Amino acid sequence: MGLLNRRQASALLAASVMASRAVAAGGEGARWLPLSAKRSTPPLRLPDLADQEWSLAQEQGHPLLLNFWASWCEPCRAEMKSLEALEVHFRARRLRVVAVNFKEGREPVQRFREAQALTLAMVRDSYGEAARAWGVRSFPTTFVINPAGRAVLRIEGELDWGSTTVQQRLQTFL
Questions:
Q1: In angstroms, rounded to a whole number, what is the distance separating the alpha carbons of residues 112 and 71?
Q2: pLDDT digits (tens, 9 = 90+) for 90-116
C-alpha cells in the first residue's frame, strides 16, 4: 500500500472526509459531543518533546484542551495556529492546550513545530496507546478537560478555534 499502512490510510481517509465537512460548513462542521459525567477520564502520561514526562494529573486546577493530531493529517495541521491563538485568547481563564501527536517520532514532531513557529505544548503518543484509551478514531479529535480533571466534551473534526462562534460555544465548557 505504499508509504502508508492500511490503518494510517483509513485514518487519513476519515480525517479527509471530516475536513471536507468542516470546510463546507465554514470550519464549524465538527461534531461536538458532550461527555457523560459517569464516564471516567482515562489517565494520561506521555513524554514531551524534551523527553520529560507530562501527565494529565499535573494539569488539574485549570481547563485544558487535549488535541489528538498527526502531521500527515492536513486538517490537524491546518488548525494548529488557531489552537495556539485560542490558548492566548483564554489566557485569563488559564486555559492550556496540549497537542498529543499520534505515532510519530520526536524529530518529525519537533521539525513540524519549528517550521510552523508553534509554542503549543506537545506530547507524543508513540504507540497509539493513549489514542486507543481515549477512543480516538479520527483526526483531529479534541477533548475539553475541566479544572477538576474530567473530560466534559469531545470534538471530532477541524475547527477554526479563532472563530467567535467556536469560542463562545467553548466558553460554556470551560
A1: 7
A2: 999 999 999 999 999 999 999 999 999
pTM for the model: 0.83
Distance, in Å, from the CA atom of 95 to the CA atom of 139, rounded to the nearest integer, reads: 22
Distances (CA, A) of 69 to 1, 73, 99, 106: 22, 7, 7, 14
Do residues 145 and 65 make contact, with C-beta atoms less than 8 angstroms apart? yes
| Separation between Cα atoms, residue 50 and residue 106, nearest integer Å | 8
Largest CA distance in the chain: 48
For 61, 67, 101, 115, 158, the CA distances from 77, given in Å and listed in that order, are 29, 11, 11, 11, 9
pLDDT tens digits for 117-132?
Answer: 999 999 999 999 999 9
